[in-house]
Amino acid sequence: MNETPPDIPVIDHIAPLAAGYAAWFCDVWGVIHNGITPHDSAVQACESYRQQGGTVVLLSNSPRHSGGVAKQLDQIGVSRASYDILVTSGDVARAQMERRGGDKVFLLGPERDRPMLNGLDIELTGPDEAEVVLCSGLFDDETETPDDYSELFARLRSRGLPMICANPDLMVERGDRLIYCAGALAKAYGEMGGEVVYTGKPHPPIYDLARERLSEVAGATPDSAILAIGDGVRTDIAGAIAEGLDSVFVASGLHVDMDESDALDSAAIAALFADTQQKPLAAMKRLRW
Fold it and tell me: What's the pTM?
């Protein structure tokens, strides 16, 4: 790994760093788009990096399988020329559910996430008949909060049901708002004493799958040649550090008070990582070539 400077420099362009890496593990929601529209500079940065020979792995904590996320990216206007591979937390969750063939599963999440289980040898049931809970999010993330699930979680916990969390994110930006994700529910369930298994960042399984997919298209790639890019301190950056990967932090409304200027407050960035010994190589207001 490259030496990490004691302070976190704020940079405007990632091109000077790009030459030192053969591949990016780039977050999607918060870096590539905001849930509604693409961040054009980020899409262009990925395209430029690929044109110079780099491989872009989009690494998402979405509970959907990668095919579903690719369709979503198409719909909102993210060019397929901006990435080589798409790996999601939902891919990992699906693989784990496949290994639980025959189980009765309670899907805790919106109807739009049901396709992630298509073709699997499982039986979808209600919470009182289930043997395992697959949590992909809130039933209605527009109006609900984790507090609305306390009674349900007490019932699940009393039966000792394990929960597989298909999206460890606590919150994400949707346009100019923050909404709760499956990670917030899993956190609440864990705090009640429930067993939780996480499939996405910052946990190892999603990185293992990303490395496997990367090797299929670009050959064996050492960790020292992979740069992780993301806006989540506890997911993208913490996961990269735990995996021994260099990283760049992209600011978003998750952690930083965003304004209309191009300036990024270096003091605010330093405060975000004040309690961590290992820090990202740099921070950016937005991913830009």
Answer: 0.86
